[in-house]
Amino acid sequence: MGNFFNMDNGFFTALGKFVDMIIISIVWLIMCIPVVTIGLSTTSLYYVVVKVIRRDRGYLVREFFHSFRTNLKSGIISGVLMILFFSVLFFDRKFATTLTGTQGFVLLSIFNAMIFLLICVTIYIFPLLSRFSMGIRQLFKTALFMSMKHLPTTILLFIITAACGVGTYIIRPLILISPALCILLMSLLLERVFKKYMPKKSADAESAGIDEWYLE
């Protein structure tokens, strides 16, 4: 019975992580309100879910805003570009639905394929930004490369994202935890991909007291 009230036991650890996911999901929602910060907030959410919730490093809200400040410029530019790309493609798709015959079918198929491709890039781009330092152009190229090279993983990530979105739409209160839960599930796959492109843990960094938590 004494072990049950030990704050380090499995029950309280799981409960603590559950509460953390609710807290950081709410922070994410608040920081998405300006709309142009959606990409930046998602970058920070991925960073804190992997570092704090999965790896038990740092403090939840502090790490979120550390990533928020670090990626401020790139995150906003990337997020705004994605919003513009999606807006243009959805507008073009809507126009294609008004056409009849072969022309309408061909255009609709092209725009559907482009939207799917853009979704695949979106799945990778903000997690990439949270982990690697690169320019905007390189960020988009790398996201496209990874999404196509690891297509089976990309499809699973798409299914996870869609399931979380549909689940939240059906059960609205899930919005209080689904952002962090979705990122947590996605990170289980994304981290395996990222490790293929990261160096091995450095003995010099360890002796210098540098915490390469992302290499674990």
Cα(first) to Cα(last) distance is 34 Å
Rounded to the nearest angstrom, the radius of gyration is 19 Å
Shape by Cα distribution:
globular
Q: Quick one: how many beta strands?
A: 0
The structural class is mainly alpha
**SS strand fraction:** under 5%
Number of helices: 9
> Mean pLDDT across all residues, rounded?
88
User: How much helicity do the residues have?
Assistant: over 70%
Kindly report the oligomeric state of this protein: single chain
Poorly predicted runs of 5 or more residues: none
Give the total of domains: 1
User: What summary fits the major beta sheet?
Assistant: none
**What's the helix-strand series?**
HHHHHHHHH
Please provide a written account of the structure.
- The protein is mostly helical.
- The protein has one domain (12-197).
- It is built from nine helices and no strands.
Task: Write the SSE topology.
Blueprint: H1 10-31, H2 38-54, H3 60-70, H4 72-97, H5 101-131, H6 136-149, H7 151-170, H8 178-195, H9 203-207
Brief sketch in words of this structure:
This protein has 216 residues and is mainly α.
Provide the descriptors you would attach to this structure in a database record.
globular; mainly alpha; 76% helix; 216 residues; 9 helices
